Amino acid sequence: MRRNFHQIAYAALEVCNALERADLAACTARTGLGEGARALEIGAGNGEVSVLLARDFGMTVDAVELDWGMAALAQARIDAAGVSDRVTLHRLRSDTVLADLRGLDLICVIGATEPTGEGVREPRAMLEGLKPHLRDGGWVIWGDLFWKDEPPAPLRQVMELTNLYATHDGWQAAAREAGYEVVSAGASSDETWNRYLAAMDAAARDWIAANPYAEERRMVGASADRVKSMFDFGRPWLGFGLYLFRKA
């Protein structure tokens, strides 16, 4: 099976972003949701968030992950955690899965690309797109990059090839404009960022060293170099926020 940088790097992470699992658990606990709640995770990554929702909170979870390699990793973690009876993993586009879901108690979106459909990239539009699938009073846990300050134009262009980002206050304003109450908003620490970036880079370098004849070795190395360079340069302008919104 051919590997890429993100499959290798995310296998080494607890949560696939600059985010602590404990902070995500605390955010989830604030919803008061538990046994019998219905949740959707868009962009399951390595599967750890869906495992948390199912194992720690007793929720029934639909998880969406389009990348085949990441989906395989997610399914392996779901099975190993013993929650395959509670978590259904869909290797489909998120808008395809959303079309069949209504009345959800929780939608969790952590660093996902175009979570409500192709071409929907504005913060308010993405959040508005989730609303029809939530029950009244339903919750959104949203985690994503934010701009600490206006970035250099080339950095914005590179970082926003997929989604558009707001400032920390801007994400909250977008949620209110989309019809949500902002219940909590936090930002990851420098220590969390450092651990996240170091873990990904080390996983890639270790894999390259252990697989000297792999065809994808050069591609993995190039991707690792690109990610490291991008964040080494961009860190002064970038933060990662975790937000809890409630449908008004």
Descriptive notes:
With 248 residues, this protein is an alpha/beta fold. It has a single domain (5-192, 229-247), classed as Vaccinia Virus protein VP39 (Rossmann fold, 3-Layer(aba) Sandwich). Helix content is 43%, strand content 21%. The chain is built from ten helices and seven strands. The chain has helices at residues 5-11, 21-29, 48-56, 68-80, 94-98, 123-130, 153-159, 168-177, 190-210, 217-234, and strands spanning 38-42, 60-64, 87-90, 104-110, 134-147, 180-187, 238-247. The chain has a seven-stranded mixed β-sheet with strand order 3-2-1-4-5-7-6, sandwiched between helices. β2, α4 (68-80) and β3 form a beta-alpha-beta unit. α1 crosses α9, α2 packs across α3 and α9 (190-210) packs antiparallel against α10. It is globular. It starts with a helix and ends with a strand. The relative contact order is 0.17. The mean pLDDT is 96.
Considering the chains and any ligands shown, give keywords for the structure.
248 residues, alpha/beta, Rossmann fold, seven-stranded mixed beta sheet, 7 strands, globular
CATH superfamily: Vaccinia Virus protein VP39
Number of domains: 1
Tell me the CATH topology.
Rossmann fold
Number of helices, counting only DSSP H or I runs of 4 residues or more: 10
Summarize model confidence as the mean pLDDT.
Answer: 96
The count of DSSP E runs of length 2 or more, i.e. the number of strands, is 7
Give the CATH class: Alpha Beta
Name the CATH architecture. 3-Layer(aba) Sandwich
Distance separating the two termini: 46 Å
Q: Low-confidence stretches at least 5 residues in length (pLDDT < 50)? A: none
Biggest beta sheet summary: 7 strands, mixed
- Structural class category: alpha/beta
Helix content: 40-55%
The strands making up the biggest β-sheet line up spatially as: 3-2-1-4-5-7-6
Instruction: Please write the string of helix (H) and strand (E) elements.
Output: HHEHEHEHEHEHHEHHE
Beta-strand proportion: 15-25%
The oligomeric state of the chains shown is single chain
Give the overall shape.
Answer: globular
Based on CA atoms alone, the radius of gyration comes out at 18 Å
